[in-house]
Amino acid sequence: DIQMTQSPSSLSASVGDRVTITCRASQTIYKYLNWYQHKPGTAPKLLIYSASLLHYWVPSRFSGSGSGTDFTLTINSLQSEDFATYYCQQSYSTPNTFGQGTKLEIK
Amino acid sequence: EVRLVESGGGLVQPGGSLRLSCGVSGFTVTVNYIHWVRQAPGKGLEWISVVYSGGSTSYADSVKGRFTISGDASKNTVNLQMNSLTTDDTAVYYCARDGGLYGSGKGALDIWGQGTMVTVSS
Q1: Rounded CA Rg of chain B
Q2: A102, A84 in Cβ contact below 8 A?
Q3: Closest Cα of chain A to B18: distance in Å?
Q4: pLDDT of residue B30
């Protein structure tokens, strides 16, 4: 199975900050990497697919990059609605494993 | 409207069984891939299973041999039969659509249900 390692596991930031979350796969997954945003009591939402493509609802302050084994999610100019937990997920092969999550909190 | 709605969750004793259903509207389950993902209390998301169009399936090791996923064309639902449940199976269970047919990339889960809670406890 492919292991996905996210860092950091938690992050404190202020509105207006730029934050970066990284995700590393235990073997190459090419660009089969997805990012999700999850808020308590709601369903996760697809944020980015194929490593860098924004889902239709996602504002341009979000961006994704990477290929192979190393990936990055960047949020520019944090807004209050961005505070949530973010997960990466590989969809190269089953089981389609998730990273352990990064909880983004308000400083 | 494209929508997924989970049902069937509840309280079950260790060793027991439960059948979850994912009701789908707005698209046909048998020509799509539908996944199940769970989140245990205080934990992260865990992918557990997928059923592909044509009926082939895949499972996480943690549920293989105990859970069975299947599509029901007559009801346009996807079911998750869960047997030999343990306390480790306590979680919110989500079904989600694979967005690969809709331009979101293979395996990207673009539409999710609201989840159903399964509690395994004596």
Answers
A1: 14
A2: no
A3: 22
A4: 87
Residues of B in contact with A46 (CB under 8 A): 99, 104, 108-110
| pLDDT per position as a tens digit, B20-76 | 999 999 999 988 999 999 999 999 999 999 999 888 999 999 999 999 999 999 999
B-proximal residues of A, 7-66, CB under 8 Å: 32, 34, 36, 38, 42-46, 49-50, 53, 55
Chain A's closest residue to B49, CA to CA, is A95
**pLDDT block averages, 10 residues each, chain A of length 107:** 98 97 98 97 97 96 98 97 97 97 95
Q: What is the DSSP string of A30-57?
A: TT-EEEEEE-TTS--EEEEETTTEEPTT
**Interface-testing mutation among A7, A29, A46, with chain B (most B C-beta atoms within 10 A):** A46
Rg (CA), chain A: 13
Banded model confidence at residue B105, pLDDT cuts 50, 70, 90: confident
d(CA A25, CA A71): 8
